[in-house]
Amino acid sequence: MGIIWTILIGFVVGLLAKMLTPGRDPSGFFITAVIGIAGSLLATFGGQALGLYRAGEVAGFIGSLIGAIIVLVIYGLVTKNRA
Fold it and tell me: What pTM does this model have?
């Protein structure tokens, strides 16, 4: 159930990250959700592996949000250079 919960939180975090990221973002709803899920998975399991927080702590949600914002910004930089 942990991975499913992380994916659901990642979906919400992706939408929040899109609202918090400055500038125009050309990605659509689906790409934003996938980026949020990727950032959430990366930050959740990375933070737990580094011992920054345990499963179920609020710091995990904040870490997921920061991870999703970082992935969203990197995605924006990569797609910006293509145009």
Answer: 0.72
